[in-house]
Amino acid sequence: MLSKAQRVYHWDRRDNSISSDRLAGADLPHLGRAIAVYRASRGERLGRVRDAARAALEGLRPDRVEAVVELLDDVATYEWPRGRAQAMRRVAVFTGAAARHPLLDPAAAPDVLAAVFDAAPAELAERVALLYADYPEFHRLRDFPADYRPEHLHADYDLGQAQALLYSATRVVVEARSDFKHIVQYARLARLLMRIEPRPDGGYRFVFDGPNSVLRQTHAYGVDFARFLAALVQAHEWRLTAEVVLRRGWTPLRVVLTAADGLSSRVPAPALFDSTLEAALAAKFGEAREGWHLRREGAILAAGDQVLVPDFVFAHADGTRVLLEIVGYWTPEYLQAKLAKLARVRIPNLLVAVPRRLALEAGALPREVLPFKTRILLRDLLPRLEAFRRR
Fold first, then answer.
1. What is the distance of C-alpha 376 from the center of its chain?
2. Which end of the chain is more exposed for a tag (fewer CB within 10 A), N or C?
3. pLDDT tens digits for 107-156?
């Protein structure tokens, strides 16, 4: 990810809003030249690769250059001596030179270097690179992906600048109409504290304003927001509003991002279904059947101090809603935790589908249980849905 020093933004003082910088199609040729530099520089030192890329980006707006070079470095693979060996070799070189102090004869330096490294390049710059090969400046470019194109760098830049703005966020609110499980999962992976509120339109409002951001400005929590954004852009129908404080004591600025902005990331997009079991049920049921309409992940339930996102919501034309959670084949520890969470959910219209071998354990749940063998059959599911209507 980019650093604060590399971020570029646009500040609108009229409404106290701020937006991240975006590249344009006209910038693609510059990006292509920089990528070509990296592809042609295998084996070269990092410092020289970066300088050559900066020269290739001469036509790009100057305040964008360092961010683009940083993103290219993130994609590239470098190699360097690992562990303590390189530092110990340096000490050996300095010790050998000290024994010959004062070392006034330049011709004697290669001998001292070769005694430790078994090599002594003719050029002074290469000798320094050999001696300090573990320093970032002298890391060697080992590889650069052949399929990385200017369009990818364009997308990485746009996302990276949006992420860099969130480093200074103290509060983030996400409003979503779908992909709830994806949002909850990645918010937890990003270590964000959240509050979830239902919206009148059937969606949910996720409020991230953990104690770290409330009590003091902290870069660490902002980095967590940035990591979360990389996953959020893979979802659909979302809107993010953030309060950003660029400097302590300044009035917060407002950042707004939506799914329509077209941001993308190389974080794997969420699978539509978590298992073949769910995919098979959705395909068999279809969008509607016998007055029931199926919706994927259409609700969030409180389960004590945790939340549960049921796999499906079945809505009937008469207003009846039934939520279906499928307990699949997992480890005993997972199943125990899953059943314990389900026991804490306090709504009446929840149907839990479990493998038959777990039917006795699930029978203790205070809700309807649907046992299945290898897949959920419609002839078993539909009568149970109808039973909720009769209630």
1. 33
2. C
3. 788 888 999 999 989 898 999 999 999 999 999 999 999 999 999 999 99
Amino acid at 289: R
Q: Please give the C-alpha separations between residue 281 and each of 143, 274, 298, 359, in angstroms, as whole numbers.
A: 44, 12, 16, 19
Give, in words, the CATH class of 276-390. Answer: alpha beta
Q: Where are the beta strands (DSSP E) in 101-252?
A: 140-143, 169-176, 195-198, 204-208, 238-244
Structure tokens at 346: 């306090």
Sequence ranges of the domains in the chain: 4-80+140-153, 85-138, 167-261, 276-390
Each residue's pLDDT tens digit, 329-365? 666 676 777 778 888 887 888 998 888 887 777 666 6
Q: With contact defined as beta carbons under 8 Å apart, do 20 and 164 qualify? A: yes
* Residue matched to tokens 């770290």: 212
Global pTM reads 0.77
CB of 179 closer than 8 Å to CB of 66: no
* Contacts of residue 85, Cβ cutoff 8 Å, sequence gap at least 6: none
The domains spanning 167-261 and 276-390 adopt the same CATH topology:
no
CATH topology of domain 167-261: Alpha-Beta Plaits (3.30.70)
